[in-house]
Amino acid sequence: MKIWMGKIVGAFLGFASGGPFGLLVGAFAGHLLDQALGKMLLGQDNDSGPVKQGQVQQVFFRATFRVMGRMAKADGRVSEEEIDAASFIMDQMGLSGAQRQLAIKYFTEGKDPELDLSRDLSQLNNLFVQRTALAQMFLEIQLSVAYADGRLSLEERRLFDKLCRQLGISAFQFEWINGRVQAAMAGGGKRQHSGARSSGSDVRNAYAVLGVSADASDDELKKAYRKLMSQHHPDKLVAKGLPEEMMKLAKEKTQEIQTAYDVIRKSRR
């Protein structure tokens, strides 16, 4: 597992204190720090070598439902819509029996403000260093629950800001993902029939789902579409650590992307 934060911080501090030469010294010192961290964190330890796939999936599963519970309770109470949204995600994952009870347990733990989520978020941050597609999927899941009542409250927005800082996700990345989730939910997951004509709002939502502007060229549109399809490919996500139970969610995301691309192409004919 590659860690870059030490090099970035070291280079910045070195440049600030010693100019270009300080930048080199700081970057090298940061490199040594990154190597030490890489042996301590999830990617590798001194005894067991690279972290096993099952451990990655376990971290993602636990953190997903704990943070989901914290998000649902962010504004002081858990609404029926938020409970339904969490249950819907469990249904989509096909969780039953012991697995569903475990997800409910983590969700309930997350609602408790006394529970410190810092360890979960630290482990997630380590996973996301080389698994940016997982970070995107994680935020999409949390946003789908937060928007269950139709909007982001101020408290939920503040919690997302805190999560992004702790997970190393930039404000720009968050707003881009947020816009795509809003557009997908506004579209209601509707699929256009092959002969149906798309409305103006359908087309606008489709552009937002792909994260491109309406004046994007055909090449830019295709590039954005292919990138998103690659990022959300279920097999690739599972290979990077997405729990297999969440594969159905990933498949639905690729369907949303495909539908949006088809809507835009049809509108450009």
From TrEMBL:
Alphabetic keyword roster: Cell inner membrane, Cell membrane, Chaperone, Membrane, Transmembrane, Transmembrane helix
UniProt cross-references to Gene3D superfamilies, sorted A to Z: DnaJ domain, TerB-like
Transmembrane region(s): none
Periplasmic side: 1-7
Pfam families associated with the record: DnaJ, TerB
InterPro entries in alphabetical order: DjlA (IPR023749), DjlA_DnaK_co-chaperone (IPR050817), DjlA_N (IPR007791), DnaJ_domain (IPR001623), J_dom_sf (IPR036869), TerB-like (IPR029024)
Bilayer topology: Single-pass type III membrane protein
Subcellular location: Cell inner membrane
Database matches in PROSITE patterns: DNAJ_2 (PS50076)
Cytoplasmic compartment residues: 32-269
Keyword Nucleotide-binding: no
Domain J: 205-269
Record remark on domains: The transmembrane domain is a dimerization domain.
HAMAP family: DjlA
Assembly and oligomerization: Homodimer.
Function summary: Regulatory DnaK co-chaperone. Direct interaction between DnaK and DjlA is needed for the induction of the wcaABCDE operon, involved in the synthesis of a colanic acid polysaccharide capsule, possibly through activation of the RcsB/RcsC phosphotransfer signaling pathway. The colanic acid capsule may help the bacterium survive conditions outside the host.
Name of this protein: Co-chaperone protein DjlA
Organism, scientific name: Thalassolituus marinus
